[in-house]
Amino acid sequence: MRFNLMENPFAMRLGKRFAGLNQLLEQSPLPKATRELVSLRASQINGCGACIDMHTKEAAAAGETSVRLHLVAGWRESTVFTEAERAALALAEEGTRLADAHPGVSDETWATVREHYDDDQIAALVTLVGLINAANRMQVIVRNPGGSYQPGMFAALVE
């Protein structure tokens, strides 16, 4: 690891604000399973080991099955996700691969998201995609490795 964001006082202050946004997302009407699947998929795309570790373990702790967790990367070719989850995963992928897929999220994906989610859930989903991409980038920049995360370990940040 190049730099430990958890040991620097200023970085910890920033982390508290970041964790506060995540806490608001946890209070949103967007289902926990959807939040974790979206976070996991974006983290896979971005190659963020720390975030893959976190969201896999948080999802498992919340009752997500190992089959679904193993199939997130191949969700299009899997039968274990609901149509709403598939819409959220498509949004996560297109919102993460902005440089690869101009103009970003397609009208087709957006229309599918609108079919399955209300305005509050969409606000949470769009914010979540932005937030997980920011988290991925920060962790990849400092080369924070995956493997040591324990479910709930960042809860103290927002207290």
TrEMBL record:
Protein name: Carboxymuconolactone decarboxylase family protein
Domain spans labelled Carboxymuconolactone decarboxylase-like: 21-94
Matching Gene3D superfamilies: AhpD-like
Superkingdom, natural source: Bacteria
GO MF assignments: peroxiredoxin activity
Any Pfam family matching the protein: CMD
NCBIfam families assigned: ahpD_dom
InterPro entries in the record: AhpD-like, AhpD_core, CMD-like
